[in-house]
Amino acid sequence: MAVKRKLVSTRALESGMRIDQSIIDATGRVLINKGAYLDDFQIEYLRSKKLGSIYVSEGEPDADELELQLPAYTRELIEKSRVEDKAKVKLNTEVVKRVGEGIQYLFSNTGDSNFTEQARNVAGELVKAISASNAVAVDINLIKCSDEYTFKHSVDVATMAMIIGKTYGLNDEELRQLATSGLLHDLGKSKIPNDLLNKPGKLTDEEFTFMKQHSLFGYKILKEKNQFEEPIMLGVLQHHEKMNSKGYPLGTDGEHIHKFAKIIGVADIYDALVTERPYKNAFPKCEALEMLMSMTSELDFKALQSFLKSIILYSVDSLVILSNGEMAKVVENTENAMRPKVVGLRSGKIYDLCNDFKCASLVIVSEYKKNR
User: How far apart are CA 158 and CA 180, in angstroms?
Assistant: First the structure.
């Protein structure tokens, strides 16, 4: 937004207006810096000095300019309040490439005599990469791993599932099995024609009925190998089942859905929502999270809570726009990824969006992108 300079009577000044001139006393001391946001005390001071009018700026400065003009106390407050993000998943290009190619091979060669060994090797590669960084969180802004949907989606879901699983309380062996199940959760789509998988329009009832069989197809492929642990296979079979028994392919109720499927189901729905497909646009990440949070009758609450505690939506030091119009800097993430603790750059106030009841009506409207 362009910044305009405007002469305003001191009688018309309001808290939060941005002064566009320096106020200097008779000795040359700067009392109010140009670019400062006025508070009630400063406004009273200006009026007491019988100043008829001053220049103010209309419009928000860009982030770099705003940060340069921060008062010392605001800078100190940001530094004092700042808490580093938890260790985040970092997958290098080579790992992503190898895992993606491994999944593509498995989907194309389900009858390979070495299928089980290959699957374990691919899962082991992912587990090793995630374990090496001691990651306990995933930045969902960086999770995209490749351009090819089916294989990217499999890697994304397995990666998120492993991090969710850590928060959920799974042990190392369970996490290894979960990674395998996550990578193979859509294996049954290898039995679905590509023109149906990528159909741009709405599926017919008959097509959708067939599509819903993909998790059963995947389960049967693994079952026939007679070499995969039951939890891995149940994660594949049940990842579309719902707690209210309205899922598919079997309509299993929540009590009988395996925890792997509950975890994979949350990751699968989120990744599907934020990914653009021929038949739908991608939802914004915040909107996708809100949709997930509204699905408490369908998704396992523990798995959903573990997901929300495991992801980072706004990294520490990122800039956001609040619903009160103020730009703020994220200083600490909380148990709710959508409601971190931030410091307002204009007001110098701490807004604990998750834990402070006074902030209940305040939300993050968007993340500020410096290159926009």
Answer: 8
What are the E-state strand segments in 245-358?
A: 311-312, 319-322, 327-332, 341-344, 350-352
Six-digit token string for 181: 């199940």
CA atoms within 13 A on the CB side of 12: 9
Q: Which has the closest alpha carbon to 210: 259, 249, 157, 251?
A: 249
What does the alpha-carbon distance between residue 346 and residue 349 come to, in Å, rounded to a whole number? 8
Reduce the DSSP state of residue 24 to 3 states and report it: strand
d(CA 331, CA 214): 43
How is residue 192 written in tokens?
A: 């679905």
Whole-number Å distance between alpha carbons of 308 and 138: 10
CB distance 113 to 122 below 8 Å: no
Residue 307 pairs in a beta bridge with none
φ/ψ of 99, rounded to 5, equals -65, -45
In the chain, the domains with their CATH numbers are 4-59 (3.90.105.10), 93-312 (1.10.3210.10)
Evaluate whether 232 touches 225 at the Cβ level (below 8 Å): no
Give the bridge partners for 278, in sequence order. none
CA nearest to 344, candidates 35, 59, 13, 37: 37
pLDDT in tens, 106-120: 999 999 999 999 999
Q: Is the peptide bond preceding residue 71 cis, with omega within 30 degrees of 0?
A: no
Q: Are 1 and 60 in contact (CB under 8 A)?
A: yes
Closest alpha carbon to 261 in 221, 233, 282: 233
**Cα–Cα distance measured from residue 262 to residue 242, given in angstroms and rounded to the nearest whole number:** 8
Place of tokens 């190998």: 225
pTM for this model (two decimals) = 0.80
End-to-end Cα spacing for the chain: 11
pLDDT digits over 20-68, tens only? Answer: 888 888 888 888 877 777 878 888 888 998 888 999 887 666 667 667 7
